[in-house]
Specification:
about 250 residues, two-stranded parallel ribbon, disordered N terminus, alpha/beta, binds zinc ion, Carbonic Anhydrase II
């Protein structure tokens, strides 16, 4: 019962803070009026100061990202269908929002979790992966932010990138920052979506709201050295340090 109440409260908090769209997006600062400070990844307003923008960033105990130790995961008994987004090619807006390169599709499609629909709202990139596997960071990561239109709960699918062949979709995105481009979000997702790590965490940027479902796909995508360098001209260190796991466990599939 207590758990249920907590869940309802945290969903309510998520809705109230209006942060549903802001992971990797514009901050909702709690700092006093007239204070022009803005969070970032630097020394003065970086991750160790984010609590000054949203107390959850410092006090939350279910925060993201985390380090995943494959030997300490729990095997899942069921599998969610993460093959997603059908084949929807449509117009998407690509912007530099000051924290990341963010892509907002007009119609991004959806994934289904526990029989519930989660619509793709936006995806954005970090110059190195935020979650680590056995302490290892991937060269880049895309966070595909989905939301249940009824409960407003968020589900983020992380697609890791490692250096390899040139990535056609990424090429389109980095060449269209500040404009729109035709994209199919499904082209972004690796072929194997049945293998992933799953846990409940938070947004990785202020307001760091919790009760976010994370799905980290095991199969990485490839991007060329040139593309990774090109992206990092925008952002190289926009990753939050890993957070304590506390009482959580990571499920694996
Ligand atoms: Zn992110």
């Amino acid at each position: 019962m207590i758990k249920k109440i907590l869940l309802v409260l945290s969903i309510a908090a998520l809705v109230l803070t209006g942060c549903n769209y802001s992971e990797g997006g514009k901050p909702k600062a709690n700092v006093s009026a007239g204070d022009k400070r803005n969070w970032n990844y630097g020394t003065n307003n970086g991750p160790t100061h984010w609590e000054e923008f949203s107390s959850t960033c410092g006090k939350g105990i279910h925060q993201s990202p985390v380090n995943i130790i494959p030997g300490k995961t729990l095997k899942m008994n069921h599998s969610y269908d993460l093959s997603m987004h059908d084949d929807i090619t449509g117009l998407a807006k690509v912007i530099d929002n000051g924290h990341s390169i963010k892509v907002t599709p007009e119609h991004g499609g959806h994934i289904k979790l526990h029989g519930e629909i989660f619509d793709l709202l936006q995806y954005h990139f970090h110059g190195k992966s935020e979650h680590t596997i056995d302490g290892k960071r991937f060269d880049m990561v895309a966070h595909m932010v989905h939301q249940n239109p009824k409960t407003k709960q968020l589900a983020v699918v992380a697609v890791f990138f490692e250096e390899g062949a040139k990535n056609k979709v990424l090429e389109k995105i980095i060449n269209h920052v500040g404009s729109t481009v035709q994209l199919d979000a499904q082209d972004f997702v690796p072929l194997q979506t049945e293998h992933y790590y799953h846990y409940i965490g938070s947004l990785t940027t202020p307001p760091c709201s919790e009760n976010v479902q994370w799905y980290l796909l095991k199969q990485p995508q490839e991007a060329s050295e040139e593309q990774i360098k090109h992206f990092r001209k925008f952002y190289v260190d926009n990753e939050r340090p890993v957070q304590e796991l506390h009482d959580r466990f990571i499920e694996v599939n």
